[in-house]
Amino acid sequence: MSDTDIAAYLREHPRMMGVLFTLTVLLTQVGSVAATANGSTIS
Questions:
Q1: Is residue 39 within 8 Å of residue 32, measured between CB atoms?
Q2: Full domain range(s) for residue 14
Q3: Axis crossing angle, helix 14-41 with helix 3-12, rounded to the nearest 10
Q4: How many domains does the chain have?
Q5: Per-residue pLDDT tens over the stretch 5-33
Q6: Residues near 17 by Cβ (< 8 Å), separated by ≥ 6?
Q7: How confident is the model at residue 43, as a pLDDT?
Q8: Degrees to nearest 5, angle at CA 30 with 29 and 32
Q9: Which of 2, 7, 13, 24 has an alpha carbon within 20 to 30 A of 42's alpha carbon?
Q10: pTM reported for the whole predicted model
């Protein structure tokens, strides 16, 4: 898929842009929590 295909798809499905944004935020938070949890268990 090229960038123009993705842009066209998101233009046709605006709710998907919100879903992708939400997933990005959640994955960022999960990664941060996982890094903190991993750092705190090593002694």
A1: no
A2: 3-41
A3: 110
A4: 1
A5: 999 999 999 999 999 999 999 999 988 88
A6: 10
A7: 53
A8: 65
A9: 24
A10: 0.63
Could you tell me the two tokens for 11? 């233009």
- Separation of alpha carbons 20 and 26, rounded Å: 10
**What single letter denotes the amino acid at residue 3?**
D
Secondary structure string (H, E, C) spanning 1-39: CCHHHHHHHHHHCHHHHHHHHHHHHHHHHHHHHHHHHHH
Q: What is the pLDDT of residue 24?
A: 95
36: number of CA atoms within 13 Å, CB side?
6
